[in-house]
Structure formats: C-alpha cells, structure tokens
C-alpha cells in the first residue's frame, strides 16, 4: 500500500529530525520512487533556476544546512549530482530524505547517479554496514541499491548545461548515445556508463588512464570537442 501525502509528509519530517522510518515504509517509498524514476531519461531535462549540489556522502547535517541556506524543497529547485551515501555516518537518513522529497516533489528535485550508488562500492565504504547496524538486516540496503539502478545518469539544464557526476567518455560523442544506455544495472567496470560516473577532469590534453582504475582522465580539448554540439559542460 502506497503512503498517502500526509504519511509522506510525516516521514519527511521524521527524516529531517534524523529519525529512521520503518523497514516497511522504506519498501513503500522505494516502490513509489521507482515508478517516478523509471520515467526519467538518462539525460534528464532540468529547468532553470536550479541549485546544483555535489557529493553529500552521508553528511546529513550538511544537507540540512544546504536546505537552510539555499531554500527548502519545493521553494528551491535542486539538482544533486550523486554520491549520496558512504563515508559519512548518516547515509541512510540522507538518501531516504532525498528520496522522500523526490517522491513528494518530483519536478523540484532531480537525483542523478554517482559512482558510490553501487552495490560493490557501498559494501566497502560504509553504506552496507550502516544499514545492517541501523536496521538489523540487509533488506533496506537491497531496496536502496535497487533504486540506484533507476537514477538518471546525467542532466541538462535548459538545453545548455550538461551535468554529470564524473565526466566524459571516449565512447560518447553525443547526448543521444547516453540516452540509449541501459542504466538499470549495477555500475559496470568499464564502458560508457562507467565513464560517466568515474571519469575525472585533468590539466592535460586528450584522454589518460585514471589512477582510480575506472573511467578516464580527460583534458580541456576533449571538453571542447564534446561542446561542438553547442553545450556548456558542468561537472
């Protein structure tokens, strides 16, 4: 049974207080979020004005401060560039609050995938262990990591500013190539989808091998080449 608007508002308020919602509520929230996210594009269109936010990494109180300074949803339109979880102590509260806001105000908050929105990465960097510690089982982790597979890979603001968590790929020359990627999967170890989430800009020319073992290093000339379709790249 899906949560009503009043139930969802209560859950949002509860999460804002850094209090967990129940496992059944997480399951229902993820089911509703999946219905919304599956309709979004790999290159999701976002209206301006919008506040663009980088990695949160479980820093829940930084997220609250961000809303305090930038304005609350739905008053402010937000685009989050991924890496919601891992490293911080409040990854589950952070991700569930953002997900609940997405379900409540789907046109006022856009969530794209980062390289930490991955089953493999979250088992190493803290999110899996946090879910076990706080819920006593891996079920909430499984629900959340399934949602990761439905998150957009990138966004474009007013058809002018391209936003992605990581960077470019030598396998991608056009936005249409991104649109054809099957994103509903675990992050691959190589290939275009991997590169979008893992690549890094570098003060060099051309493409280089990433020391992180996934994605590529890319220089200003590769950005200029990508921009020949008259886009302005934002990382």
Description:
This protein has 235 residues and is of the alpha/beta class. The protein folds into two domains: 40-157, 4-Layer Sandwich (Purple Acid Phosphatase, chain A, domain 2), CATH 3.60.21.10; 162-234, no CATH class. 41% of the residues lie in helices and 14% in strands. The chain has ten helices and ten strands. Strands 1-5-6-10 form a four-stranded mixed sheet. Helix 2 crosses helix 4. The N and C termini lie far apart (39 Å). The model has no long low-confidence stretch (mean pLDDT 92).
The topology string of helices and strands comes to HHEEHEHEHHHEEHHEEEHE
Major β-sheet annotation: 4 strands, mixed
Q: How many strands?
A: 10
Q: Give the uncertain stretches in residue-range form.
A: none
CATH T-level fold name of the largest domain: Purple Acid Phosphatase, chain A, domain 2
* Beta-strand content: 5-15%
Give the second-level CATH assignment, the architecture of the largest domain: 4-Layer Sandwich
Quick tags:
Purple Acid Phosphatase, chain A, domain 2; 10 strands; single chain; alpha/beta; 235 residues; 4-stranded mixed β-sheet; 3-stranded parallel β-sheet; globular; 2 domains
